[in-house]
């Protein structure tokens, strides 16, 4: 199957949509090249520096360290001192999940930071693996002499020339703070707000740090400070007689060299970690699909996300239709007719979209489908067609000609019947967290639907939550579900209930049912927003509209695991201008 894996698609969403499945936006924290309202520090600079310091513990000699998330346990060290690190750590803590490590979040954060301030698009590969403890020492400090600095970067895997590039590409954003380095930047005696002296005259990711250094106008205190012990940038920049700096004084060369060297920096991982292929923008994506029970009706919900060139809009006469086939009965696999429905909602993107996508020249247009389904016919496969209604022929979006196959209809999560309770942690002991004084935990009352003919011996879910404040550790556990007879079954589906507790904010579930020696699974289901999911009534179904695409024979077909993540309400919220971040909750 050449279609991207579930992990690829999850990483693709955080990188290109800049948000979690529930809509909480990472990009919105940094884009457009934001300053923190409190400290006036550049968020982008903090994020880029964070990734560098996490990477800097790499040791090429024994393959240990690298981008592995260890930095969050190293913030007490002098080399990682400062408010910027703590704020960045809390920016990132809500975004990791089972398939996206903290180290992947840091990399994506660094890439978005560079992109939103006018820098290059750094290629991203995922699959970094987190450690859950501090690693070795690593990050360079301004009082180090050039031999120490050169050896430090050699250990990270970089030559002297690469060290110069890395420092120049890093020190084009942000600056030095009086609170962190009073010996370099004098505090303001009449204010408690930290003074920040920027490395160059712009907040942007540009080569001013280089050109101002070369023409002698630089304000970079790591070059011009009277405290000659602390001028590490000067020592680094002139260590090859300024040859590398002169090469970087060409604006385009600077952007290209920074893309390459920062890309290499982000891919420094401990020995034994294999990164994924490069995560590229998907121009056709089904962000969610699956059966659901809503208002006592069995429905099938799916989304279609398409890209649209910036400064253009889709034609107002465009009609997007989902086609599908029955799984059972006389019309199985569209033997005699195909069912179809136009989208029930069209959603244009908010401006908080990932700067990476915007820099590529795209934004997204998403279409939602909710259609009634009967258990006796069910659904075996679906695909989409976009008709611009301008006389041209319709375009099919059918997963490279294979159609989207619904691999099972036996078991699915029912978000709208599930609830989340916030429970005060006063009496709650540290089962799920080691953080003192944790104020609340979330108790998720989860409901799944099981088809009658399955008769499972066990229904259970593996829950996972890595989005835990302060990163004590990820929460994982297995919940057994029991049948709830008091919930009336819907069209031959019975409901099972189970409870998962977490102090985190982003539980995902792999739901399983064991029956006759087999296990049926619904993989990587998001558990937000549950009962606050916006209800959208199912659309009318036609059986006469012709599709230009043929149904596939589904026997033996490669299947797509039903995926959760009911993002419909989220997308509505974004469209209504209510893009939210969980930080404000
Ligand atoms: C010789 C090696 C390096 C030394 C000694 C060094 C030192 C420093 C110091 C002292 C600061 C000021 C921090 C503060 O005031 O809190 C700083 C800021 C920064 N560094 Fe480096 N750095 C080095 C290499 C790098 C590299 C390789 C990168 C990234 C590729 C990088 C990215 C940054 C960024 C973005 C900031 C600004 C942070 C902000 O404004 O919040 N640095 N660095």
From TrEMBL:
Domain of life, source organism: Eukaryota
Q: Name one GO biological process term.
A: cellular response to oxidative stress
Q: Name one Pfam family in it.
A: peroxidase
Q: Does this UniProt record's set of keywords contain Iron?
A: yes
Gene3D superfamilies membership:
1.10.520.10, Peroxidase, domain 2
Q: Which residues form the Plant heme peroxidase family profile domain?
A: 42-279
InterPro entries xrefs: Ccp1-like (IPR044831), Haem_peroxidase (IPR002016), Haem_peroxidase_sf (IPR010255), Peroxidase_I (IPR002207)
Q: Which GO terms describe its molecular function?
A: heme binding; metal ion binding; peroxidase activity
Its EC number(s)? 1.11.1.-
Q: Which UniProt keywords apply?
A: Heme, Iron, Metal-binding, Oxidoreductase, Peroxidase, Signal
Keyword field contains Signal: yes
Q: What is the role of this chain?
A: Destroys radicals which are normally produced within the cells and which are toxic to biological systems.
Similarity comment: family membership: Belongs to the peroxidase family. Cytochrome c peroxidase subfamily.
What is the name listed in the Swiss-Prot or TrEMBL entry for this protein?
Peroxidase
């Amino acid at each position: 199957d050449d279609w991207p894996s579930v992990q690829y698609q999850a990483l693709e969403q955080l990188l290109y949509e800049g948000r979690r499945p529930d809509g909480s936006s990472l990009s919105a924290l940094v884009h457009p090249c934001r300053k923190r309202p409190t400290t006036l520090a550049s968020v982008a600079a903090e994020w880029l520096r964070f990734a560098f310091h996490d990477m800097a513990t790499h040791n090429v000699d024994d393959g240990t360290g690298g981008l592995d998330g260890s930095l969050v346990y190293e913030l007490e060290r002098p080399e990682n001192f400062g408010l910027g690190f703590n704020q960045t750590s809390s920016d990132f803590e809500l975004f990791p999940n089972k398939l996206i490590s903290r180290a992947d979040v840091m990399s994506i954060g660094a890439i978005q930071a560079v992109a939103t301030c006018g820098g290059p698009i750094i290629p991203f590969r995922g699959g970094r693996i987190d450690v859950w403890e501090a690693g070795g020492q690593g990050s360079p400090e301004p009082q180090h002499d050039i031999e120490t600095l050169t050896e430090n970067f050699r250990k990270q895997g970089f030559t002297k020339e690469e060290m110069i590039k890395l420092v120049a590409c890093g020190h084009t954003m942000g600056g030095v703070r009086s609170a962190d380095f009073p010996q370099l930047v004098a505090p303001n005696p009449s204010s408690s707000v930290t003074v920040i002296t920027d490395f160059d005259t712009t907040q942007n990711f540009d080569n001013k740090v280089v050109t101002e250094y070369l023409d002698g106008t630089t304000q970079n205190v790591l070059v011009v400070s009277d405290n000659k012990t602390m001028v590490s940038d000067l020592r680094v920049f002139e260590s090859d007689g300024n040859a590398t700096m002169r090469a970087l004084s060409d604006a385009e060369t600077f952007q290209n060299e920074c893309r390459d060297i920062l890309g290499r920096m982000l891919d420094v991982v401990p020995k034994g970690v294999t990164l994924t292929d490069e995560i590229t923008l998907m121009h056709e994506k089904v962000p969610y699909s699956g059966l659901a029970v809503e208002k006592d009706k069995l429905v099938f919900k799916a989304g279609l996300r398409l890209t649209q060139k910036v400064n253009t809009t889709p034609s107002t006469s465009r009609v997007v239709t989902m086609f599908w086939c029955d799984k059972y009965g006389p019309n199985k696999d569209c033997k005699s007719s195909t069912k179809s429905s136009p989208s029930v909602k069209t959603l244009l993107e908010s401006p908080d979209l990932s700067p990476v996508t915007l820099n590529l020249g795209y934004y997204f247009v998403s279409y939602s489908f909710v259609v009634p389904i009967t258990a006796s016919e069910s659904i075996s496969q679906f695909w989409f067609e976009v008709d611009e209604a301008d006389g041209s022929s319709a375009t099919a979006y059918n997963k490279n000609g294979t159609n989207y196959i619904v691999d099972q209809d036996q078991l699915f999560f029912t978000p709208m019947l599930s609830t989340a309770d916030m429970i005060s942690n006063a009496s709650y002991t540290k089962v799920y967290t080691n953080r003192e004084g944790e104020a609340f935990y979330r108790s998720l009352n989860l409901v799944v639907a099981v088809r009658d003919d399955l008769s499972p011996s066990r229904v259970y879910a593996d829950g996972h939550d890595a989005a835990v404040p302060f990163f004590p550790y990820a929460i994982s556990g297995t919940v057994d579900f029991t049948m709830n007879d008091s919930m009336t079954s819907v069209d031959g589906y019975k409901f099972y209930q189970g409870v998962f507790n977490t102090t985190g904010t982003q539980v995902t579930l792999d739901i399983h049912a064991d029956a006759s020696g087999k296990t049926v699974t619904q993989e990587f289901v998001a558990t937000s927003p549950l009962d606050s999911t916006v209800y959208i009534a199912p659309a009318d179904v036609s059986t006469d509209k012709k599709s230009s695409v043929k149904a596939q024979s589904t026997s033996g077909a490669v299947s797509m695991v039903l995926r959760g993540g009911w993002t419909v309400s989220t997308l509505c919220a974004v469209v209504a201008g209510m893009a939210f971040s969980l930080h404000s909750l």
